[in-house]
Amino acid sequence: MKDFKDKFIIGIDHGYGNIKTANHIFRTGVAMSDTEPVFGTNVLFYNGRYYLVGEGHKEFNAEKITDEEYFILTLAGIAMELNSYGLTEANVYLAAGLPLKWVSQQKKAFSDYLLRASDVRFTFNRKNYHVRITGVNIFPQGFAAIQDRLSAMKGMTVLCDIGNGTMNVLFLKDGKPDPLKAYTEKFGTQQCVIAAKTAIQDKYHVNIDESIIEDILRTGTADIAEDRLNVIKETAKDYVKKLFAVLRRYDYEPSLMRLYVVGGGGCLIRNFAEYDENRVTINSDIRATAKGYESWAFRLLEKADAK
């Protein structure tokens, strides 16, 4: 969260699997109820209804405005950030993003969606909040994570943003993005989770909780039987091979260009791929994009204020 005059800039990375802010991360699951949930860590009360936030993931949907859930998740993210600074009331300027190839087409609709209620009162974890949403900036997802280090990028660089639902690819020359070489693929880490879950079911006829698979993808191991662990590892290795095949289809050549990886999927490359560490950079900060949104929005507000 960044302070700019009478408002606070809050960057929110609306992932398909997780919501990220500069200081927090939580899953995108939302369960609505007319009564207060008995169990659950994060409970939001808004417009007469309770929402259990962060249990499980939302289903993939390229359009994030088809229901109110991403707005509820946005309110939860705002509350978490404000609570980190001991605040319950604030003017908030939102900085968010969309996948590279979808940002131009969906930017206006997503901005209107986030501004649907500019003066909002709600309760989060039994604490009352009053938020005035004064504006919104929508940026290209992934690119925001590197926008403050472009001057250091020499030669050809391929940005690869691997999220839960999508993989975004952008080519840059001397830090300048090539608008004709920007791609969005529905090839996020959830594809790997589904493949691993299916492999376990096919071979051992048991159902494995997705959270166990996610732990393995993130850390490379888990406290499960070795044969089951090996099946999931082999599935992950196959996924990253396919991921690099997608990059090569878009003319990625590791000997001629550098690869910069952001997003939660970077851990799969780190744990399960063979690559040249001198030519591949993996940003392990899963909140990097949300922080980038904040920095970008701050500069734009500063520039507009100076006119």
Explain how this protein is built.
The chain is an alpha+beta fold. It is built from seven helices and 16 strands. Helix 3 crosses helix 4 (210-219). An eight-stranded mixed beta sheet has the order 1-2-9-11-10-7-8-6. It has two domains: 2-142 and 289-306, Nucleotidyltransferase, domain 5; 148-189 and 224-282, ATPase, nucleotide binding domain (Nucleotidyltransferase, domain 5).
Numbering strands along the chain, what is their spatial order in the largest sheet?
1-2-9-11-10-7-8-6
Tell me the overall shape: globular
CATH class designation of the largest domain: Alpha Beta
What structural class do helix, strand and pairing data support? Answer: alpha+beta
The residue fraction in helices comes out at: 25-40%
Question: What's the architecture of the largest domain, going by CATH?
Answer: 2-Layer Sandwich
Structural Rg: 20 Å
| CATH topology (level 3) name of the largest domain | Nucleotidyltransferase, domain 5
Strand-residue fraction?
Answer: 25-35%
Count of domains = 2
Q: CATH superfamily assignment of the largest domain?
A: ATPase, nucleotide binding domain
Give a count of the beta strands, DSSP E runs of length 2 or more: 16
Largest sheet: 8 strands, mixed
Order of helices and strands, N to C?
Answer: EEEEEEEEHEHEEEEEHHHEHEH
Q: Any low-confidence stretches, pLDDT <50, length ≥5?
A: none
Distance between the termini: 24 Å
**Total helical elements:** 7
Blueprint of the fold:
Elements: E1 2-4, E2 7-11, E3 13-14, E4 18-20, E5 25-27, E6 30-33, E7 42-46, E8 49-53, H1 69-84, E9 89-98, H2 103-114, E10 119-124, E11 127-140, E12 156-162, E13 167-173, E14 176-185, H3 189-204, H4 210-219, H5 226-249, E15 258-262, H6 266-272, E16 280-282, H7 288-306
Parallel strand pairs: 2-9, 9-11, 12-15, 15-16
Antiparallel strand pairs: 1-2, 3-4, 4-5, 6-8, 7-8, 7-10, 10-11, 12-13, 13-14
Helix pairs in contact: 3-4, 3-5
